[in-house]
Predict the structure of Hexosyltransferase.
Amino acid sequence: MKSERRGRSKPLQASKPSLLMAFFSCLAWLYVAGRLWQDAENRKVLTNLLYKNSLQRPKILTVEDKLTVLGCRDLERRIVEAEMELTLAKSQGYLNKQLQQSGSSSGKKLLAVIGVYTGFGSRLKRNVFRGSWMPKGDALRKLEERGVVIRFVIGRSANRGDSLDRNINEENRSTKDFLILEGHEEAQEELPKKAKFFLSTAVQKWDADFFVKVDDNIDLDLEALIGLLERRRGQDGAYIGCMKSGDVISEEGKPWYEPDWWKFGDEKSYFRHAGSALIILSKNLAQYVNINSASLKTYAHDDTSVGSWMMGLQATYIDDNRLCCSSIRQDKVCSLA
């Protein structure tokens, strides 16, 4: 019986190492599984971090992307060059074909359009001019055949259609020597803007080499002026007149007061410009005023306003003493009336 019990206890003792091995195997498996799970979580966290960083980092450009960027840069460069060329074309007075075709009512190339400023109360002055240096009737039409157009330049009354406007319309029906600026209000405070309206209207109506602004307080030697313009014919960018400069009046209430006096620096002196009595612009400069009239700044006086427009252009300043109406020269073109 004892020998049988000993024989039965051997298998029980032999199974203990197997149980220990199984136990340690389970522990090892749990350890390895835990590490693998932890490694998987770490990889997941790292993957998320890398993904977020990849969104923040600049994208690696492919060859196609680089070509696209270079193409955009080239297009931008060409747009800038085109804008510069357009600005240059505007400064030289180029217009679209439709405006050029409608530029002259007769279709004939003229030497000059002379605009004589006038007002509602200046009928007597106009009659004096018509009887002196300014042709009238058939003589005026013959002068136009020579290539010179002369018109009295006037705007409209603040009260459109009133007796002032009707009187001008009636006078023009009789004399046919007015250029009426429909968009301009004829008033002393609006005088600096009159140059823009005159040049814009005239350059669209007539195709001429020169556009001349004349005050109504001077007498002209018309043939001398025509001869002067004939010798300058074909000269682009010509800004002709009796050039002057002077002090800017900053005290309100004084004659020739300039509200924008502070823009002229500490010296308070005007830039060089043609005097108001007689201003001559070549065609391309007049076209520039027409194209840019909406954005051109006007000052207190029309001559300084025109001079400011010319400063930013490639204009040729021609100071001709014969156009100084107060000059003592015998060959002067104009004189004070």
Residues 2-56 form the longest helix (55 residues). Residues 101 and 116 are 26 Å apart (CA to CA).
